[in-house]
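Loading example: each entry is read as two labelled lines plus one structure line.
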Amino acid sequence: MTQVLEAKAPGSTHAIGRDWVDTETVKPCQDRGQDNSPPSVKRVHFGSRSNVDTIVWGKKGEFTVPASYDQDKVVVQALGTYLSSRLRQVLPFIASCEALAGTPLNDVIKSLSEPGISVPHQPENRNDQFRSKLIATLLDESIEDGVTHPAEGLIDEALRADSSDCQNGLSRVLVENYSTRPSLCASIIRCIGRLDDVRVRGWGMRVVDDALQNRDAEVREAAIRALEAWGGSEALDMLRRHKDTEVWLDEYVQQVIVDLSGTTA
Amino acid sequence: MLARKISRAKWEPKEYLAADEIRADVISGCLRTTGDTLSWWRCTDDEEDVAEVALALAAGPKFERFDTIYVVRLPEAVFANAGLASESTDGETAVKDLRPRHMDLVSLDVERLAMVARILGPLIRSGDKVVRFTKAQLMTIVTTAIHEERLDENDLTQELQEKLAWHGDAPPS
């Protein structure tokens, strides 16, 4: 999922993880009034190697998602011929971008389609509240080996209420924070790894598989711990394929392979 | 020697810190004090004796699940030479014969705790003085102690008892 990332200065490029944003002429929207004066062209490039989101502003605040893209760069054109009042209120947020750091573009778009303007950071539904509470709980208290963490209960409760919704929420928190808050992601993966593998089968394995490729050792360790806890042939295969760059982690992987080989037929 | 459970990953260098600098997260996540004291267990330099520390920890009042743990050990004199005060206290563990092995670093303030972190940092990162006990190894250590009647299973936390029951509490091979 492409996110609106930090863009401080026109012409600057920020590479954050696999996502990037390149601003050309972004500036806070000027209230152009009702005079039909010539539009100022605003272009913002949002990109991701794996996924793209595009927003195109046309007259009267129309927008389309997704739109065309050039190679793996997405050209977002904000044509300010006549911005609706709602767009005029939102565009400064988009232009400054800092207010939206970490907010998926889809949320920005969603806010445009609803009556009135709300700052996208504010929780809007049960999933938002779950994610906010989860993050607060994990930041409040770090995970200790051998000790149950309150966040496990939160995730368990959310999974029982709506498994798919919970998994989507967790995936989203991970995607949004892998680059900037790897310790938080490691904590989430540790909580996921402590869940019964039957509850998270398939989805959990994909999360862990992705985490094993993370450049942060804490995230990779959390993934290895999850595989160790779940066990089974799939976990064993995943561990056998993994070659960690950190010696202490690679030794850990090798020991877990030995441990699991004794219990996996 | 003294030994203590650590969160190994918290000690990894970070790109936003110099190579020899230590994350502040180790203070909250790895060197958590209670009453300005920091808990340690005595052992020898022999890894088998470090396993006794792992047993003491697993049989502690907070241990609710079998997770892989890392234990760092270092000569007791290191702390004394650094001017850190210590007191022998009974350890909180269900393994009675291990309780006298416990000691606390006492009267710690922020500076002294940072000193502990700076002492431990190079030891942990080099890996020489860190012993890992995986989930399976920890279970074996605990079940062995139960079968040797050093530990009463009923003295473990309820959660740990349930996990042992789930895994059949098989005698170690």
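Chain B touches chain A at residues 5, 7-10, 12, 25, 28-29, 57-58, 62-70, 127, 130, 132, 134-137, 159 (CB under 8 Å).
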